[in-house]
Write a structure and sequence with these properties.
binds adenosine-5'-triphosphate; binds 1-O-pyrophosphono-5-O-phosphono-alpha-D-ribofuranose; elongated; alpha/beta; D-Maltodextrin-Binding Protein, domain 2; 11 strands; 6-stranded mixed sheet; 5-stranded mixed sheet
Length: 211
């Protein structure tokens, strides 16, 4: 059995909020991903490495075993259509909500509602559960612009403080999901490396429960 563990993580919000959890397990990256161009970061633990990937790519790296574990937002996991990873722990970091939002002064919509989002699958499932057919427009960011410019009637996006919605004249009209980041584990690694992974999961769960 290899005693190496690779953890996939995105830089920015999730990396920054995960640092104290990793530190509580005495895992400290040797470099800051905002400073180095390296994408594989060694840590103070000889056998533990972090790999820096796009937030939406974390489940892919973990599913295929390119990383043993990863940290991914629930929004990303809900949208992911792969064959599955274990999701044993809610790390309670990068918390926000996924909402449906509309212009404050909503106009009457004639015909099908047009919804702009980067969460196409989640949005389709949400409206399907309501028995509503909508037209979904895929965007990769700045969703809040779409209703302002008439590209869509409403959006599905993440909200934390609500400042971005407010600054663009939008209001939330429904909460689709409460979002936080989850620890995910490759299925084969969970079996093959359980002597390493199980204690990490136990310790992380204890740290999360304490905080
Ligand atoms: P990508 O680089 O793949 O486009 P991204 O730009 O969405 O991803 P981040 O902005 O770092 O990456 O967000 C990573 C995760 O943090 C999201 O998947 C979500 O779970 C969470 N998140 C996003 N926005 C917020 C927010 N405003 N407040 C709290 N958590 C958030
Ligand atoms: C996220 C999200 C919203 C914003 C909400 O964007 O897509 O635009 O945060 O946060 P608020 O309610 O506190 O204003 P982010 O800051 O990650 O920018 P990006 O997705 O464009 O990188």
């Amino acid at each position: 059995m290899s005693d190496n563990i690779t953890i996939a993580i995105s830089k920015g919000r999730i990396f920054n909020e995960a640092l104290p959890l990793l530190a509580a397990l005495n895992i400290r990256p040797k470099m800051d991903p905002d400073v180095t161009r390296k994408l594989i970061l060694a840590t103070n633990q000889r056998n533990i490495k972090l790999i820096i990937v796009r937030a939406t790519d974390v489940p892919t790296y973990v599913e295929y075993g390119a990383a043993d574990m990863g940290i991914a937002g629930k929004d990303v996991l809900m949208e992911y259509t792969g064959n599955g990873v274990y999701e044993p722990l809610d790390l309670q970091i990068a918390r926000c909500k996924m909402v449906l939002a509309a212009p404050k002064e909503s106009k009457k919509v004639n015909g099908r509602l047009r919804v702009a989002t980067k969460y196409v699958n989640t949005t389709r499932n949400y409206f399907a559960d309501l028995g509503r057919q909508v037209e979904i427009i895929k965007l990769y960011g700045s969703m809040e612009l779409a209703p302002v410019l008439g590209l869509a009637d409403q959006i599905v996006d993440l909200v934390d403080t609500g400042n971005t919605l407010k600054a663009n004249g939008l209001v939330p009209v429904a909460t689709i999901a409460e979002i936080s980041s989850r620890l995910i584990v490759n299925k084969a690694a969970m079996k093959m490396k359980h002597e390493l992974i199980k204690p990490m999961l136990r310790e992380l769960a204890a740290v999360v429960n304490r905080s």
